[in-house]
Amino acid sequence: MTTTGMGGSGSRSKLWILMITAFIDMVGLLMVIPLLPFYAKTLGAGGLIVGTLISSFSVAQLISAPMWGRFSDAYGRRPALLVGLSASVIAYIVFAFALYLPHPLFFLFLSRIVQGAGGGTVSVIQAYVADATAPDERAKALGWLSAATNAGVAIGPAIGPITLRLGTYGPGVFAAVLCVCNIVFAWRYLHESRDMKEAAESKADTTKRSRSRDAIVNVVTRSAAPASRLIWIYAIAIGAFQGVTSMLALLLSARFGVTANTIGYFFTYIGVLSVVTRAFILSRMIDRFGEARLVRIGQFFLAAGLALLSIIRPLADPAAVAAMLGGVLPTRAVAFLPYLPLAVAVALLPLGTAFTFPCVTSLLSRVISSKERGMYMGVQQTFGGLARVVFPILFGFLYDRATGLPFLASAALVLFTVYLGLGMDSYARTDAKAAAA
Prior knowledge:
Blueprint: H1 9-32, H2 36-42, H3 47-75, H4 77-97, H5 104-119, H6 122-132, H7 138-163, H8 170-189, H9 196-204, H10 212-221, H11 226-256, H12 263-289, H13 291-311, H14 318-324, H15 331-336, H16 339-366, H17 373-399, H18 405-420, H19 424-436
Helix pairs in contact: 1-7, 1-8, 2-3, 3-4, 3-5, 3-6, 3-11, 3-17, 4-5, 4-8, 6-17, 7-12, 7-16, 11-16, 11-17, 11-18, 12-13, 12-16, 13-16, 13-18, 17-18
């Protein structure tokens, strides 16, 4: 199969349509995600329950991701994506009315599980981009795609509190309506990227078709191989990052008095920085440093932001600090000072993730063949999903003991992935040539 570079008009139009689809999907998702910890809090849940609630999404995604990968390899990316979006509609409706039903915590869990089952199509979207772009352009294309999703991250949390004025069902209902519109848009404009002739040959030749279970075993038993190392880097780093994301709202609430009506500002701030980084900075950074080196830069940024979040807290007595400074700054200005390092720490998170994850996924797509691309990206999501199951629960347990502890643990895990990636530059070059041969 011959892929078209990003310079081709067909590839550009496919990418733009996929970006719009991903953007609308993320707007709906981020309307409800920041509210989950606060909904759970109203039901008396602590950090461990919130972490388990977040993990339930990843459990379903963990189970479904390889299935979506195989399905999209065999039948096409488009139908897999449409079915996944349909699952999101159901999840949003359940979320909308969960607090009005008996056993509301159960229905919050149910909404997350249904959403996670549909969320296994993340690997399908990544494979779609890889199908439509040349190897040298994939990291940039994935960066643009993630810029679109992070635009949704910026806008969704701002819309969520507005729809809360309708009642606690408002965000869920509005997100469901958005998702239905997204399905209609994707059905009309999103065309298949998979070479279906190649897919038919792959299905017919069962002796050469790799199974996802074998691929998973290979990642564990051949952990030094380039593809395995990339999957481990992705899984540990994204698990560490998303594990503490579930605790971020609780940390900000405990230390800075953030509420369900104001948490959206933080997610919007993260989303705007992500869009700017991925749309205007990532491509230049890839050209300057290369994908493997940029991954390491992103890992250091991410670890630094997580470590800073563990120690930042408001001043206990701003008036006393103002007096120590000789009255140079008013008490209000002094009380605001801790928010500056908080802004820096939070900013390092989208910078770190923007430089890390698109490049890791692009490198993975280059060291495997197109026939197994969807499956291996599904395996990547499987390992990432497993990490997203374990880490939020672990970090919720740690949070109940010390609010900063999960952030320190997460920073240490991200730094460990730097070690896993040492020497990846030469592996990436070697395997990229082998894949092209």
